[in-house]
Amino acid sequence: MIRAKKIHKSYGDLEVLKGVDLHIKEGEVVSIVGESGAGKSTLLQILGTLDMPTQPKHFGTEIALDGQSFVNMNDRQLSRFRNQNIGFVFQYHQLLPEFTALENVLLPTRIAGKNEKESLEKAYRLFEDLNIADRIHHKPNEMSGGEAQRAAVARALINEPKIIYADEPTGNLDSKNADDLHRLFFDLRDKYNQTFVIVTHNPNLAEITDRKLVMKDGMII
Ligand SMILES: Nc1ncnc2c1ncn2[C@@H]1O[C@H](COP(=O)(O)OP(=O)(O)OP(=O)(O)O)[C@@H](O)[C@H]1O
Ligand SMILES: [Mg+2]
């Protein structure tokens, strides 16, 4: 699903990623762990096309999602590629506060120009699946942290992305809500063969993923 070679990232003199190689298979749930500042979020942002590696030509960097290389795409191509192929879940749900949960979840389908009726049906199904059907017309500030985070997962899933990147998705939740969300990731994998890459400081989650990648000193060890 993901093949990446020689990813480098520097901020000025600070070399955050020193040639990361990575290979993720379809349907895998992979965790990335490591100390604060190890470069986990930086790596996830680059894999997710939200940030660019440093001097990819010089280093011979290659990153491909499902065989499609995106390192040389321009901004417009990247936005489109991201909208169609990649879902994100962050530590704070990042739902837009002035929109309802449903409107938030539908946004990526509108950007992609998908059929409204089909998208609506899919959204309703997802809200049922994620057990938040009764919160569908609520705004984020009228939802609990766990509910808002599940709506964020619905938003990540709605365009049927090839891969979902999650950066400390349960870092802001109590242990019950965190466990529920972790279970949800595995349910989604079992049901849809959804691929997940999850950055986490949560040892319980890291232990139950298919593979745990440890980042240290700008490398995966
Ligand atoms: N935009 C930026 N400009 C300069 N330095 C940055 C920038 N983004 C990140 N860094 C630095 O890069 C290093 C890696 O940051 P990153 O956010 O990837 O760490 P992390 O492993 O996700 O840490 P945490 O577990 O605390 O979230 C840190 O030293 C950070 O200060
Ligand atoms: Mg981080």
TrEMBL record:
According to the UniProt entry, its GO molecular function terms are: ATP binding; ATP hydrolysis activity; transmembrane transporter activity
Q: Which InterPro entries match?
A: AAA+_ATPase (IPR003593), ABC_transporter-like_ATP-bd (IPR003439), ABC_transporter-like_CS (IPR017871), MacB-like_ATP-bd (IPR017911), P-loop_NTPase (IPR027417)
Asked if Translocase is a keyword of the record, the answer is yes
Question: At the top level of its lineage, which domain of life is listed?
Answer: Bacteria
Q: What UniProt keywords are attached to this protein's entry?
A: ATP-binding, Nucleotide-binding, Translocase, Transport
| Any one GO cellular component localisation term in the record | membrane protein complex
Gene3D superfamilies the record matches: P-loop containing nucleotide triphosphate hydrolases
Domain spans labelled ABC transporter: 2-221
Q: Where is the signal peptide?
A: none
Q: Which family does it belong to?
A: Belongs to the ABC transporter superfamily. Macrolide exporter (TC 3.A.1.122) family.
What name does the UniProt record give this protein?
A: ABC transporter ATP-binding protein
Tell me the classification of the organism that encodes this protein. Answer: Bacteria, Pseudomonadati, Bacteroidota, Flavobacteriia, Flavobacteriales
